[in-house]
Design goal:
The complex is a heterodimer of chains A (115) and B (112).
Chain A (H helix, E strand, L loop, with lengths): L2 E5 L2 E5 L4 E8 L3 E9 L6 E7 L4 E4 L2 E6 L4 E6 L8 E12 L2 E6 L3 E6 L1
Parallel strand pairs in A: 2-11
Antiparallel strand pairs in A: 1-3, 3-8, 4-5, 4-9, 6-7, 7-8, 9-10, 9-11
Chain B lengths: L4 E3 L2 E4 L5 E6 L6 E7 L5 E8 L14 E5 L5 E5 L8 E8 L6 E2 L3 E5 L1
The chains are: A mainly beta (115), B mainly beta (112).
Amino acid sequence: KNQVEQSPQSLIILEGKNCTLQCNYTVSPFSNLRWYKQDTGRGPVSLTIMTFSENTKSNGRYTATLDADTKQSSLHITASQLSDSASYICVVSAQSGAGSYQLTFGKGTKLSVIP
Amino acid sequence: GAGVSQSPSNKVTEKGKDVELRCDPISGHTALYWYRQSLGQGLEFLIYFQGNSAPDKSGLPSDRFSAERTGGSVSTLTIQRTQQEDSAVYLCASSLGQGKQYFGPGTRLTVT
């Protein structure tokens, strides 16, 4: 069964500090991995998409890494800002047939950045 | 440009009534997804349309849930005989193939 596990479930950090969120998956056959940011009451917004051959991808202060061998990904946030407070969701895509695929969602990490 | 829009933004309905939720994807996007997010829970995949292919309905929780996508554009999610456990935010997303998904603002459904 395809699964995506995220840790920690929640995290509180001081403004300006860095943090790293983890995502472990057992999805096969792997197609890509995505990180989303979801503000309270809003739809998710894509941060990064990584395929099998990509080890790291950055989007501003967000840097995602992927280790396809250990099936782990991390999202590193540098110099956190109050606006980074949100849920961060890891989503893994698996090929499920010609031209079709299935998405498996993690439950997210709720990040709170405090002044 | 215009993003994904959903209507209504909020819907309160009585248990046992049918509801229809609408999603207008980004023009030209071939893939459309419906998700459900209950309070404090992660996103739950419901159904996905890709071009003219048969939709992937594997996430629909029961036969009370159905969705259609007319003309490869607008989609409607229908919940028949609503139950209180159907209360959630229903999110729609669209993408170009397997590209980045763009989410709509969601419809908050409350079943009383």
